[in-house]
Amino acid sequence: MTTTPAASPATHPAQPAIRTRQRAAAVVRRADGQVLLHRLKGDTFWALPGGAIEPGESASEAIARELHEELDTAVALGNLAFVVENFFRHADDSYHEIGLYLHATPLPGSLLSTSDGPYEGVEGNQTLIFAWFPPHELAALDLRPTFLRSALAQAPGLAGALHIVHRDAPQSPLAARGIVDTPVSFS
């Protein structure tokens, strides 16, 4: 049996800790094509509504729970739109988020179908702002992950789910080792 000596810290610098999480998000569209986005009050960026998937919970259950907790409303959930591996930094932490994004529509008679918004919701003790955006305005928004600007501007009936690997960081650990993710194009 041969053994390989452990690498010294000098030859392999420590990588910063990466937090992993599973997230479910809803691609909620109205009949006129507008997309529902949300942000924390005071933040500059927008995202799809959703949140963490709790142990034992499906993506659909997580979305239903999050929309009930945050906005006291429900949506009709549809097929899977995207499977997203999202690598990003937020508040000095690095994240690797696995996201399941599902198509959704407002339920008849619900807040989202009877009012144009914007709407105020809650995330713990913080205020969330929910608003509708037409697809042609998405390119100008600070929307995260950024691939959503072009992906959501496409016709809502994309065939099948797309697997997206998105990195906000200009230099990923894989790229540093010569491994490059295959980009997904929405043009």
Q: Proportion of β residues?
A: 35-45%
The averaged pLDDT comes out at 83
- Give the tally of β-strands: 8
Summarize the amount of helix as a percent range.
10-25%
Intertermini distance: 54 Å
Which strand order do you get reading across the main beta sheet? 3-1-5-4-8
Protein structure class? mainly beta
The value of Rg in angstroms is 19 Å
Shape annotation: globular
Uncertain spans: 1-9, 174-187
**SSE pattern, N- to C-terminal:** EEEHEEHEEHEH
Largest sheet: 5 strands, mixed
Walk me through what this model shows:
- With 187 residues, the protein is mainly β.
- Helix content is 13%, strand content 37%.
- The chain contains four helices and eight strands.
- It has helices spanning 59-71, 111-114, 148-151, 173-176, and strands at 18-28, 35-40, 50-52, 75-90, 93-106, 119-123, 126-133, 162-167.
- Strand 4 (75-90) and strand 5 (93-106) form a beta hairpin.
- The N and C termini lie far apart (54 Å).
- The model is unreliable at 1-9 and 174-187 (pLDDT under 50).
Summary?
The chain has helices at 59-71, 111-114, 148-151, 173-176, and strands spanning 18-28, 35-40, 50-52, 75-90, 93-106, 119-123, 126-133, 162-167. With 187 residues, the protein is mainly beta.
Topology:
Blueprint: E1 18-28, E2 35-40, E3 50-52, H1 59-71, E4 75-90, E5 93-106, H2 111-114, E6 119-123, E7 126-133, H3 148-151, E8 162-167, H4 173-176
Parallel strand pairs: 1-5, 4-8
Antiparallel strand pairs: 1-3, 2-7, 4-5, 6-7
Highlighted features:
187 residues, mainly beta, five-stranded mixed sheet, three-stranded antiparallel sheet, 4 helices, 8 strands, disordered N terminus, disordered C terminus
